[in-house]
Amino acid sequence: MSADLDVFAALASPVRRELTALLLDGPRPVNDLASHFTMSRPSVSEHLKVLRDAGLVSEQRNGRQRIYQLEAAPLRELSEWLHPYERFWLEKLANLRTLLDEEDL
Amino acid sequence: MSADLDVFAALASPVRRELTALLLDGPRPVNDLASHFTMSRPSVSEHLKVLRDAGLVSEQRNGRQRIYQLEAAPLRELSEWLHPYERFWLEKLANLRTLLDEEDL
DNA sequence: TTGACAGGTAGGCAGCCTCCTACGTATCTT
DNA sequence: AAGATACGTAGGAGGCTGCCTACCTGTCAA
Prior knowledge:
The structure is a homodimer. Chain A is α+β, with helices and mostly antiparallel strands. Chain A contains five helices and three strands. In chain A, strands 1-3-2 form a three-stranded antiparallel β-sheet. In chain A, β2 (57-62) and β3 form a beta hairpin. The radius of gyration of chain A is 19 Å and the shape is elongated. Chain A starts with 6 loop residues before the first helix and ends with a helix. Chain A binds a DNA duplex through residues 13, 15, 29-31, 39-43, 45-47, 49-50, 61, 63-66. Chains A, B: It comes from Actinomadura meridiana. Chains A, B: This is Metalloregulator ArsR/SmtB family transcription factor.
């Protein structure tokens, strides 16, 4: 669908998933985010760059801080990508249910 | 949640996403799947192994063929992972709507 | 049983990813 | 103006990925 469905690649790293999870509680500056990891701050910055390039976060400058914020659009696209598969696994559940019903006879 | 949320890593490859998309139409043997790609069949086999290890597909032997089938569970987990973010982007939409309403005054 | 077919595995190579430290730049404080 | 703070970027090392060709195993057909 969209040009950069590299959202998957961006979220393939546990570190970056953790970053997005932290941003669920609201926008945060880099040092705040970096404090949750044992790796160096520049490495966290690099991960943030990947998330930025995927459109998953945006930055907003505030003095010498850069406040990172979660961006909804790519996640919505991910959800849409998942849609055809949702139908698939709901069928699975339906099949299971009819199977159980038959056993109840 | 689950031990192997490497579902993201498995889906990070466009080739593997294409494979799962092909399997949406139903189970298929390896050669059938491989015929949709320009890369060698062994490479497709390797991609299938990654999908297998992530639990995204299962194989069922039928004579000398191995029929691959999509597995629903990891996709459901992916959907569940997405849930908190869904709330997030719905709020975004709500904010946008109230903003538009205010403009209508 | 011998050959053809389906598909996995081994081994190797090239490119990418992730981490590091060192350094550069902009902003705030004093 | 000088130092401290917040952050990005450069460059490099090591490991992982993705592709290839060659080869192996198991099954079917003649």
